[in-house]
């Protein structure tokens, strides 16, 4: 088996962006309501009020769903992970033209109890480019805040307190930030990010005032009395780079070679050929576990994204 080219899977979100994804592919582009490209995805996107059964699901270059190809040959695509039936990872290209709200994601234990999912949503951000010299993100509590106080900020939509309670981190191309599940965070405007995450679309949103988000859609249907239990309110220093702990969820490197398990490749720079086919900046590939030799020619710089070990 050889790598299969993926067609873009642009996904509707409540915020605008996406221009830098187009520019990465040599296009002029514009900011729209489809600011994300889900790469090698077998995860359906959740957008309240929109009936889109195939949203977020990646297609191969012949128009078939990657999910269907994996179901037809789980051993070939997933190798030792065939019994799990999932790639174990979701990769996104994300470019926000506006600041995203403070939000957080459940861990595996919470997701298992409340959603029947073996995956939560630990993630990592790999900054590929910025619109200005730098962008910014906010992540992790600077000081401990008790549950009642934080809940009051949410109920009253005290946006300055919610954002101000987090570490502000300036970011540039090449920066990497690890985001454990439960960690409150927000992404600033103007950064093109390759986001690795567990394969779910679970987000609990702390601020909705000023965004096209309904208050009843903020807590994944759990109610805030339950949802806030997934939040980590202890002080957390930002984790820069991918720590060894990330290997239980995903990994990324720039080694364009077989991994013996499912992988997603994103061409970051250059032009050349992969398995005899043309490849250039912005092209994406799903690489089966059974691929044992892959020819890569040219000056390609490739980001290789892997699921959990």
Task: Set down the secondary structure blueprint.
Elements: E1 4-6, E2 10-11, H1 19-24, E3 36-39, H2 66-72, H3 74-78, E4 90-95, E5 103-104, H4 108-115, E6 123-130, E7 135-141, H5 147-156, H6 159-164, E8 166-171, E9 176-179, E10 185-187, E11 191-197, E12 204-205, H7 224-227, E13 239-240, E14 251-253, E15 263-269, E16 271-274, E17 277-280, E18 284-287, E19 296-298, E20 301-306
Antiparallel strand pairs: 1-18, 2-3, 3-4, 4-11, 5-12, 6-9, 6-11, 7-8, 7-10, 9-13, 14-20, 15-18, 15-20, 16-17, 16-19
Keywords:
309 residues, alpha+beta, Jelly Rolls, 5-stranded antiparallel beta sheet, 7 helices
Describe the protein.
The structure is a single chain. The model has no long low-confidence stretch (mean pLDDT 96). The chain has 309 residues and is an alpha+beta fold. The two termini are 21 Å apart. The strands form five sheets. It has a seven-stranded antiparallel sheet. It is built from seven helices and 20 strands. It folds into two domains: 4-246, Jelly Rolls (Sandwich); 253-306, Sandwich (Jelly Rolls).
């Amino acid at each position: 088996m050889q790598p299969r080219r993926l067609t873009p899977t642009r996904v509707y979100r409540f915020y605008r962006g996406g221009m830098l994804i187009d520019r990465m592919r040599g296009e002029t582009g514009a900011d729209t309501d489809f600011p994300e490209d889900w790469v090698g995805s077998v995860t359906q996107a959740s957008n309240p009020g929109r009936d889109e059964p195939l949203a977020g699901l990646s297609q191969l270059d012949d128009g078939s769903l990657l999910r269907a190809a994996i179901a037809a040959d789980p051993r070939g695509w997933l190798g030792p992970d065939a019994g799990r039936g999932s790639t174990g990872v979701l990769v996104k290209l994300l470019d926000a033209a506006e600041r995203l709200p403070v939000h957080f994601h459940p861990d595996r234990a919470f997701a298992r109890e409340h959603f029947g999912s073996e995956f939560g949503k630990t993630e990592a951000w790999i900054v590929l480019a910025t619109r200005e010299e730098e962008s910014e993100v906010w992540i992790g509590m600077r000081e401990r805040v008790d549950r009642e106080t934080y809940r009051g900020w949410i109920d009253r939509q005290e946006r300055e307190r919610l954002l101000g309670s987090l570490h502000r981190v300036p970011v540039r191309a090449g920066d990497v930030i690890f985001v454990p599940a439960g960690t409150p965070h927000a992404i600033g405007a103007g950064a093109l990010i390759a986001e690795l995450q567990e394969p779910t679309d679970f987000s609990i949103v702390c601020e909705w005032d000023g965004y096209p988000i309904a208050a009843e859609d903020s807590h994944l249907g759990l109610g805030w009395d339950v949802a806030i239990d997934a939040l980590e309110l202890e002080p957390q220093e930002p984790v820069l780079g991918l720590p060894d702990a990330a290997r239980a969820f995903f990994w990324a490197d720039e080694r364009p070679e077989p991994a013996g398990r499912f992988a997603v490749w994103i061409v970051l720079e250059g032009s050349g050929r992969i398995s005899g086919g043309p490849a250039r900046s912005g092209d994406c590939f799903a690489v089966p576990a059974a691929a044992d030799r892959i020819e890569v020619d040219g000056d390609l710089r490739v980001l290789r994204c892997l699921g959990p070990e």
